[in-house]
């Protein structure tokens, strides 16, 4: 269900009743049945009424002190009334639930979903009843060995119904999905499709772009699919001119409005070109966290807060690490003129030989692409981060995933982030079997922090496999505690700002030695919560590689990066 927010929606956001279930016994108690007492001698050892409430959307860890470290189960309940008119259809839509969701309506299971960062919906047309309906969601954010991500990752595992929840009403046949983007390599030809879902699959379809006086007519076939092909003299979207057009998609039984930008992103030789012009990605890494609240970001305000800092730094790209962020981030980026690097949480240790993992990766990829395929801000799909060449079935699984991604969307760049490079005698040897499938070579390196320099940064040499592919330094940096200054700047263990600043000045010198460098992205914008970062004085459960503290205070390294981007 694409473009959910622009449909006929009823929000279920707000306070939900919850039952905290850290031992997981609620499953055995079958909480979704909401047993009631009948006899005087009856009693029930749970109730959704009279207990705590949590805000939806929002992670549960930051809402109640008992839940700060919870990686387990919370049961949510929302009651609502809905009267559905004849011939209409009704869906329940979740922007994201981290990590496992079991959804019940009026005591009946209507579906489950795995994956904490992509939307899903279930049809409830025949399950809704007149009067009060009871929606119960079991949320479990326990880490799974065969999960995406797996057991180990360096961010706070926020659980909960972390994004918007809507009821969506449609006609009996609705526009389920569409792709309206410029054809690869063209700046005026749109090549796309519309998919309708329902009983009358063969429909007249109209695409309107009022500002261009464009009306394009087509028709869907018996499978509900309509192909699109039209041209116009679009004002192309770019960071400097983030032009969006109102696009109206009309079938005989449904109308959707969207704001779509038209642009082209390609690799030409060893360069990346946007709308035919070479571009250097002035990136920054961002986790989906509101630093001031120490909670999952989800709102338009959160997105504006994070992206405004990226703009102030002088960025033209944000790497939304390490999972698809909420739609507000991607849409605000479009409006603010920021390109987006969107990434799957195929992070480090993944069980690639478990066939369940392969289908989970496939589903998550489809959900990510389906939600954002019309978002011109998204220029790169990153399908993995720091997985290892030697892991059984890893390259085969990710090569297959890359192929599916290209089939789903031929208009964007695709990459895999690696950190398997060898660094010796001040020389980088960059090899990975995945590079064959990637449009750009993305490398995380932390020389100057995790690994000391072996010589002058400006004398670094590089030996990169696929020497004709553009190279992107997708992570670099080091830690510092804001305000920790004027001390020994040559000791990593003092977490001084001067030490972090030196990492940056050295890295910038090294960047001049990298062949085909198409961009860089410091790790990262804000200090953020990660419980494995446990130094009691300097970290306190925060990864301190931010250019900003979690209070938005600029560390000395910020100014090095700001200057560098100004000079590019
Ligand atoms: C890794 C990883 C990040 C992590 C960072 C760090 O490269 O991709 O998720 O937070 O390094 O160690 O801080």
Automatic annotation (TrEMBL):
It comes from Pedobacter kyonggii. GO terms for biological process: carbohydrate metabolic process. Residues 265-504 form the Glycoside hydrolase family 2 catalytic domain. Keywords: Glycosidase, Hydrolase. This is Glycoside hydrolase family 2. It comes from the Bacteria. The keyword Acetylation does not apply. Residues 173-263 form the Glycoside hydrolase family 2 immunoglobulin-like beta-sandwich domain. Residues 11-169 form the Glycosyl hydrolases family 2 sugar binding domain. One of its GO terms (molecular function) is hydrolase activity, hydrolyzing O-glycosyl compounds. InterPro entries: Beta-gal/glucu_dom_sf, Galactose-bd-like_sf, GH, GH2_Domain-Containing, Glyco_hydro_2, Glyco_hydro_2_cat, Glyco_hydro_2_N, Ig-like_fold. Belongs to the glycosyl hydrolase 2 family. Pfam families: Glyco_hydro_2, Glyco_hydro_2_C, Glyco_hydro_2_N.
